[in-house]
Amino acid sequence: MTKLTHLTIKAALEGLKKKEFTASELVGAHIAASESARHLNCYITETFDSARAQAKEADARYAAGKALPLDGIPIAMKDLFCTEGVQTTAASNILRGFVPPYESTVSGKMKADGLISMGKANLDEFAMGSSNTTSAFGNVINPWKRKGDNRDLVPGGSSGGSAAAVAARIAMGATGTDTGGSIRQPAAFCGIAGIKPTYGRCSRFGVVAFASSLDQPGSFARTVEDNALLLRSMAGYDPKDSTSVNVPVPDYAAACGGSIKGLRVGVPKEYRVEGTNAEILALWDKGVEMLKDAGAEIVEVSLPHTKYALETYYVIAPAECSSNLARYDGVRFGQRSAGENLIETYENTRAEGFGREVKRRILIGTYVLSAGYYDAYYNQARRVRKLIWQDFIDAYQKCDVLLTPTAPTPAFAIGENTQDPVTMYLNDIFTIPASMAGMPGMGVPVGLSADGLPLGLQLIGKPFEEETLFKAGHALELAAKFDALPQLLAA
């Protein structure tokens, strides 16, 4: 039998139903693996004791023939989702020790389906970053290494702890949030699959906010089909979230394996960006051929306003960040650094509680929202955002999905690209346009670089048509036959 930590979610569910092993054994194997991989720093808060207790409850349900849809499957929960009775920090000192009295809608739905949280996964502070090096709880380390180079690599961000945990086989799946690429880019860097659903598909209630018009919960897993199982659990209308959309949630897993004969796959010419790694461009061409061989029709499309997406994002996202993070004032919850008066208390609390990248984005956001610059920057960015959205709508007149690179480079070493914030921001150049338009996007691992690092491609779909993404993603996954393991596991 395959080692328990190497099973897919689908295979594990089948094994549990056939009583080949118990949920307690499955969770126990992942706890042991997690303890051996603590150097990766994937978890901020471990919840192993409660995981063991929940596994026993799952075993009782299996024995009674009353198993829940995803009963007994161990996952990692990004530490941006509020979890009742369990510390939630957003990887920031300002929330260190904060224990929510309520549960986020997404984590609550997953718990109700029998999924078991192994712990709260590390991330870039308040989800602001593309490398998972801005966390107040230390860097997350990618389980992959370059050939002949022992330097630690970043797992991508902001959901790096979630992605690294799945890649390192210490969790079978994980939650993430994607604001500008924070699921798709870490999935590419860690050699796994991840999906950002359509904005409004999953509730944001109980998710610590970064940029409210962009944040969207999604999932990581080692296969496209496993992501389909997780998203079915996470998705759905929530009256507690005013941006939640009331549309039916289909059986995403049923879409995996369907024929893509006749599917129109768009290839946007503007995504051939100067500075993109040549291996990634070659992989993109290979991915196009894979889908063509599987029966898809390849169509060249244009997204002319893509070139403005990065700049537009870094006006809108910091503006919303500045507004959302104003609530952290040392009065209501979280850290409080006393001063001689109220203003000084605010200043001390925020100076000590927020990290450098968060402060940078708050300052940018406050500037573009200020009286003299609101129209020149923020309102102008909103207009350009509408044009970016229109580009996608126009492209979908000619195609059903888009195929693009996910990131311009493979994973890089910690400290390698982090000195210049603009260089870091360019990591999201291929993922930001879909986020700006609210479109669903999926990352699929497709190959390895010359130095042995995973490379992924991105599929972008029409609003609320994630089924088509899963169908195309599954076909790409089958064609790519990606089965490489991180050196941590292959040794």
For this entry, give a set of tags.
491 residues; alpha/beta; Amidase signature (AS) enzymes; 17 helices; 11-stranded mixed sheet; 2 domains
Number of helices: 17
- Biggest beta-sheet profile: 11 strands, mixed
User: What pattern of helices and strands is seen along the backbone?
Assistant: HHEHEHEHEHEEHHEHEHHHHEHHEEHH
What is the CA-atom radius of gyration, in angstroms?
21 Å
Helix content: 25-40%
The CATH architecture designation of the largest domain is: Alpha-Beta Complex
The fraction of residues in strands falls at: 5-15%
CATH superfamily of the largest domain: Amidase signature (AS) domain
Mean pLDDT: 95
Category by helix and strand content: alpha/beta
CATH class of the largest domain: Alpha Beta
Strand order of the largest sheet: 1-3-2-4-6-5-10-11-9-7-8
Give the uncertain stretches in residue-range form.
none
Query: Shape, please?
Result: globular
- What count of structural domains? 2
CATH topology-level name of the largest domain: Amidase signature (AS) enzymes
Question: What does this 3D model show about the protein?
Answer:
The protein is α/β, with parallel strands linked by helices. It folds into 2 domains: 4-259 and 407-490, Amidase signature (AS) enzymes (Alpha-Beta Complex), CATH 3.90.1300; 307-384, no CATH class. It has 17 helices and 11 strands. The chain has an 11-stranded mixed beta sheet, sandwiched between helices. Strand 10 (441-448) and strand 11 form a beta hairpin. 56% of the residues are buried. The mean pLDDT is 95.
